[in-house]
């Protein structure tokens, strides 16, 4: 307090001249919150750098207090931006620097089909030998996908030997007179692709992707045929007769054998069956070397 001013004297507001109260006139902690009118502390009243960290209450700086672009990269502590601090869909392409998303940043199974843009997976993105058999869908490799001269003899042989089957009749089978009767070859010798049905339909069905020319052969022994009988052997494709052969029994009662063979153009899903037809009823003898059916792909 300046000399000559009595502590006991009480001034009114009107008696205090403008700017009369200087800093040294104020006791420490004399200006309490109650002494400050609303909005009394304006920006011009605060000295530069006067608001230190200690002056700011915890959580005192809200979003509304931050000016646009006020939080620069240098203001953010390393590792301070956690997942919980990022709003949903906040990280757009424009926010990610080139090459910033490294392998280690992607969670296992994080890249789903929906995340891949059309044509995003280029040839250079596929690791050598990465496309295994299990990755190729059925029927995905069409003719236009195969370069000239890539199918070697060994590769072709593997396909052809898989498209084949052989079966025989194991027991005697009866047939009626003047009736088309399917021969039931019930025991398989080989059938790599499981294309022959030896339990229900007794037919060979061409495997998916295996259209081509096939050799079809059947050998059937008719038991105890009377003289002058002519049993007929037939090849059916998709329920329709496509080829037949006859055998004529002469010279008395006895067993006779008939054979039939054909080269057929078959498409995937076509099925082949063997039928017999005879005027008198009779029997077909069963045995691996008496009554059998065989088929294989020629080309």
Radius of gyration, in angstroms, nearest whole number: 48 Å
Number of strands: 13
CATH top-level class of the domain at 160-297? Mainly Beta
Tertiary shape? rod-shaped
The CATH architecture name of the domain at 160-297 reads Sandwich
- Distance between the first and last residues' Cα: 118 Å
Sheet having the most strands: 7 strands, antiparallel
Give the low-confidence spans: none
Order of helices and strands: HEEEEEEEEEEEEE
CATH topology of the domain at 160-297: Jelly Rolls
Structural class: mainly beta
Number of H/I helices: 1
Write the layout of secondary structure elements.
Layout: H1 153-162, E1 164-168, E2 173-175, E3 181-182, E4 187-190, E5 196-197, E6 203-205, E7 212-225, E8 232-237, E9 240-246, E10 254-266, E11 271-277, E12 282-284, E13 292-297
Antiparallel strand pairs: 1-4, 1-13, 2-12, 3-11, 5-6, 6-11, 7-10, 7-12, 7-13, 8-9, 8-11
